From TrEMBL, chains A, B:
PROSITE patterns assigned: RUVC
Residues binding Mg(2+) 2: E70
A Pfam short name: RuvC
Cofactor(s) listed in the protein's UniProt record: Mg(2+)
Job of this protein: The RuvA-RuvB-RuvC complex processes Holliday junction (HJ) DNA during genetic recombination and DNA repair. Endonuclease that resolves HJ intermediates. Cleaves cruciform DNA by making single-stranded nicks across the HJ at symmetrical positions within the homologous arms, yielding a 5'-phosphate and a 3'-hydroxyl group; requires a central core of homology in the junction. The consensus cleavage sequence is 5'-(A/T)TT(C/G)-3'. Cleavage occurs on the 3'-side of the TT dinucleotide at the point of strand exchange.
Species whose genome carries this gene: Zhihengliuella salsuginis
Subunit relationships: Homodimer which binds Holliday junction (HJ) DNA. The HJ becomes 2-fold symmetrical on binding to RuvC with unstacked arms; it has a different conformation from HJ DNA in complex with RuvA. In the full resolvosome a probable DNA-RuvA(4)-RuvB(12)-RuvC(2) complex forms which resolves the HJ.
Localization annotation: Cytoplasm
E.C. code: 3.1.21.10
UniProt name for this protein: Crossover junction endodeoxyribonuclease RuvC
Ligand binding (Mg(2+) 1): D9, D143
Segments of skewed composition (Low complexity): 179-188
Amino acid sequence: MALRVVGVDPGLTRCGLAVVDVENTRRATLVDVTVVGTSSDTSLDERLLAISRGIDAWLDQHRPDALAVERVFSHTNVSTVMGTAQASGIVIAAAAARGIPVALHTPTEVKAAVTGSGRADKAAVGRMVAKILRLEAPPKPADAADAAALAITHGWRGAAPGSQASGTKAGGSSGLTPAQRAWAQAETAARKTGPRR
Amino acid sequence: MALRVVGVDPGLTRCGLAVVDVENTRRATLVDVTVVGTSSDTSLDERLLAISRGIDAWLDQHRPDALAVERVFSHTNVSTVMGTAQASGIVIAAAAARGIPVALHTPTEVKAAVTGSGRADKAAVGRMVAKILRLEAPPKPADAADAAALAITHGWRGAAPGSQASGTKAGGSSGLTPAQRAWAQAETAARKTGPRR
């Protein structure tokens, strides 16, 4: 029983999209990965429309159990932060329109989940993504590898209440799909039958 | 020949939506105004979906010639700025999907256009919106009045290149609808035949 997770690294120029199947053994397999977006000399409305069409097609093609997107912070002092937030809004609404639960993860959470260190650099994240997914090299460009890392992070965390955008604000399992519930139950059962500590 | 403009004051809790018909005499008439949004105890994905459905229905009902949305700044030090940016991204993509040209206006531009002062307070903007639209009182809440002010500002400015999100980045008239082109031509003709200065 695998949980199919779409990971999204939002952006106007390069929006990374990945699909990863995560088994309850934590084995993770890359199903597909791509980058959508437009050059910065395109008008803002055309750029956001390209993101919208890209995520719609991706979700309809892969029908994931969950979507994980990078949490964007307003104190990030980068000129691209507003465009990134606008793209993430479109991605989240596209998932919600399809009843797909949405989770937000910070870059630090993602780095810690895949490398063990919240301060890992891009190259280290890419290397670990390749290793986890049993690939010869990290997905290119870095936005694609980051999207895969987000999907792995979410798949491994399951439905951690604190990171959920879906369901009630306090979290809980109300926003889970049947596949997610089954997976959470399987994980609980595995814990119960595992070796005593 | 009136230009039908939808003005949007984006936000997750209260997203103001207004429809204003602006004639080339500058006479502006309020067609409809509403506020969509959800309370802050709703999950982010449900909130963004509510905005998405609200703007989709509004655009399909009113079929405007243009959409004007408030430009959101990343240096705005408010906890709601990221949600506002996410909502604005959804609104801009909804217009782009329908081929409706999008313009961004700053709060200062809007205040200056309707009151003559870029430093006007909310109450002054509301009073002038009521006066311009020949209403007994400003639309309530303030988000609705701000949306109407955005629509008036854009209708009066026409297709000012610097404020366009549509078309090429440098602006120009390539993103105009037939009605907008006719209106721009009428305005140019009115200038040519007007009194010499």
